[in-house]
Amino acid sequence: MRDELLQRYADLVVEVGANVQPGQIVSVQADTEAAPFARLIAASAYRHGARFVDPNYVDTYVKRARLEHAAEDTLDYVPPWYGERLLAHGEHHAARISIVPNPSLGILDGIDPKRAAKDALPFLPETFQVINARTTNWTVVAYPTAAWAGVVHPELDAEAALERLWQEVEHVCRLDEPDAGAAWGQQRDELRAVAERLTERHFDALHLEGPGTDLTLGLLPGSVWAGGGDTNADGIEHLSNLPTEEVFTAPDPQRADGVVRATKPLVLAGSTLEGLTVRFEGGRAMQIDADANAEVLRGHSELDDGAARLGEVALVDAAGRIGKLGTTFFTTLLDENAASHLALGNAYERSAPEDVERLNRSAVHIDFMFGGDDVSVTGIAQDAARIPVLRAGKWQL
């Protein structure tokens, strides 16, 4: 049964997620734990006419060895050919598929968070160049492993935990529908309709309110809301996240004031931050606290000037499949599509094409969740009128 599900999943990733075209080069990035799924994706890509599949594996055990034994002043070193390879995928208009979690969860447990924060691999800063150039059709997908399942469902034995996680991934990816591709077509249309309504409002700012959260963040005059996937420069539609439940835009990096409390844990550089709160003044994160491992996010926020400013605000309603499960997945792909979220760091150029010079720039993009049924989102119009956007997880527009 699992084999049949995996095959359908691989085909969905190739056909709907990345939308691989005949003659394309296809990059597949994965932790070695996800190699079985990467191979199925490669086979599907070739059946769909791929010219060449370029697998790129990360071995979390080797990453752990580096963090345990390498000199600290070498941990941020990235061989130049890593970025060159990614840029070459853009130059050749490749399809890109990333499988998460990567690195695999649990393997980095016990590593000094300060050391772990220095090694961002497999993330590469060149990613933003390729995304903003829109030269690739790309997607990020999830592959359940025993290690990940044990983190998500520690109350179950190993076999039951993995089975539960697979059931959840099958559901949120709509693989339990008679025609998953058609179901994603409907989801794409619904998210795009919400994004259009938000764009048409031309809000000057958003006000977020909830337990531990009271944050006002400004929007740019040319802010454009997006959702339901993207279209690259060659006109190829693709779902950048599979699954996806969000609509998003870029805030004004100079205008964020107040405090926001995360409503889900954040896993960053192998460390888990719970009880995260961030206080902003004049757009900059001035104080970052958490029950544990706050220094990991503090370290990332100091990497460059834009790392302490916001590059994204994304809204998610309570009707989505992921949030309804009530599961914390400890991986951004799923958790950020379960609840509204903010991102410190780089903004996506599609979010404000008229104000591209004002968008936040950074070598990082770190999402953390603030949404929930008890968190309200209010739009502030140009004339200061307050317009409900989300209440109890329901759209008000």
Q: What radius of gyration results from the CA coordinates?
A: 20 Å
Mean pLDDT across residues: 95
Q: Strand order of the main beta sheet, please?
A: 15-14-11-6-5-19-20-21
Uncertain spans, ≥5 residues at pLDDT below 50?
none
Helix content: 25-40%
Global shape: globular
Number of helical segments?
A: 12
Count of the domains: 2
Derived from helix and strand composition plus strand pairing, the structural class reads alpha+beta
By DSSP, the count of extended strands is 21
Distance between the termini: 42 Å
Work out the strand percent. 25-35%
Short description, anyone?
By secondary structure, the protein is an alpha+beta fold.
Structure description:
The strands form 5 sheets. The protein has an 8-stranded antiparallel sheet with strand order 15-14-11-6-5-19-20-21. The radius of gyration is 20 Å and the shape is globular. The chain has 2 domains: 2-143, Thermophilic metalloprotease-like; 180-395, no CATH class. The mean pLDDT is 95. It is of the alpha+beta class. The chain has 12 helices and 21 strands.
Question: What is the secondary structure topology, with strand pairs?
Answer:
Elements: H1 2-17, E1 25-31, H2 35-47, E2 52-58, H3 60-69, H4 80-91, E3 95-100, H5 113-116, H6 126-133, E4 137-142, H7 146-152, H8 158-172, H9 180-201, E5 205-210, E6 213-219, E7 226-227, E8 230-231, E9 237-238, E10 247-249, E11 251-261, E12 266-268, E13 271-273, E14 277-281, E15 284-289, H10 294-301, E16 310-315, H11 321-325, H12 332-335, E17 341-345, E18 365-369, E19 376-380, E20 386-391, E21 394-395
Parallel strand pairs: 1-2, 1-3, 3-4
Antiparallel strand pairs: 5-6, 5-19, 6-11, 7-10, 8-9, 10-16, 11-14, 12-13, 14-15, 16-17, 17-18, 19-20, 20-21
